[in-house]
């Protein structure tokens, strides 16, 4: 199936590793041009080299801290300069710290909201004028199953992610007449550094080993294993493509069957 991504211009945020990197890989492999962003310049450059070796196409790299408004503006302006415009926005950022309610002070709450909501709303505001002018745009945000059900130890995520889902749903309805489709992806358990770090933090709180915590957390996945990041990358590439002509306002859960909710 041709996704129609050849030459489309994608800004992929938080993409030096993990799910963002996998999304950049899928987009480049389908012919898109990409800018990848994250805070660490060295990791970004290494990611660009890996992607070039794997896909034959090197993405542009722009270091940026997505929690800082001025850096989001500079990132978007640089992406437009480098690619001539942004047709596809993949809004992604690091996850907030884990731990029980009492372990988080006001700064942690502010960071969680900045990561989950502040960065995505601001990046959408920057991207929409160009997308509307061209009557084409695809926005995909990476959220979490913590947006749709309670996950023990992730209270910051559980409180902030539903706001991001509500935002995307409302925005999808507003911008549909302009040819802009907006969707959310809710990953379950994928073996990235985020999950490995989470296992270490949660194991400390529970008094078990990280391996034991992870085995329990991933133990009730009907498909019997954590996901591979490329599964998220491929889903994101489809949602971000012209081939996706009718999915908008959706929160697509990709979790090997882990969540039990019906809607
Ligand atoms: P990861 O492997 O730890 O990668 C995180 C990426 O985000 C890195 O490129 C990191 O680079 C970048 N980043 C972190 N904070 C940033 C900031 N303030 N500004 C710009 N870039 C930033 O994590 P992941 O597993 O891909 O997770 C991506 C998102 O999906 C997170 O929100 C996570 O909570 C969510 N998620 C993951 C899973 C899973 O199973 N992995 C499940 C559900 C939801 P720098 O540190 O250099 O900035």
Tell me about this structure.
- With 263 residues, the protein is α/β, with parallel strands linked by helices.
- It folds into 2 domains: 9-188 and 228-253, 3-Layer(aba) Sandwich (Rossmann fold), CATH 3.40.50; 193-226, no CATH class.
- Helices cover 48% and strands 14% of the residues.
- The chain has 8 helices and 7 strands; from the N terminus they run βαβαβαβαβαβαααβ.
- It has a 7-stranded parallel sheet, with helices on both faces.
- Strand 4, helix 4 (106-134) and strand 5 form a beta-alpha-beta unit.
- Helix 3 (69-83) runs parallel beside helix 4 (106-134) and helix 6 crosses helix 7.
- The two termini are 29 Å apart.
- The mean pLDDT is 97.
- NADP nicotinamide-adenine-dinucleotide phosphate is lined by residues 14-20, 38-40, 43, 65-67, 92-95, 142, 144, 187, 189-190, 192-195.
- The site of NADP nicotinamide-adenine-dinucleotide phosphate has 27 residues, from helix 1 and helix 6.
Quick structural overview:
This protein is an alpha/beta fold and 263 residues long. It has helices at residues 18-29, 41-55, 69-83, 106-134, 155-175, 193-206, 210-217, 229-239; strands at residues 9-12, 33-38, 60-63, 88-91, 137-142, 180-187, 251-254. The chain has two domains: 9-188 and 228-253, Rossmann fold (3-Layer(aba) Sandwich); 193-226, no CATH class.
Give keywords.
alpha/beta, 263 residues, Rossmann fold, 7 strands, 7-stranded parallel beta sheet, 2 domains, 48% helix, binds NADP nicotinamide-adenine-dinucleotide phosphate
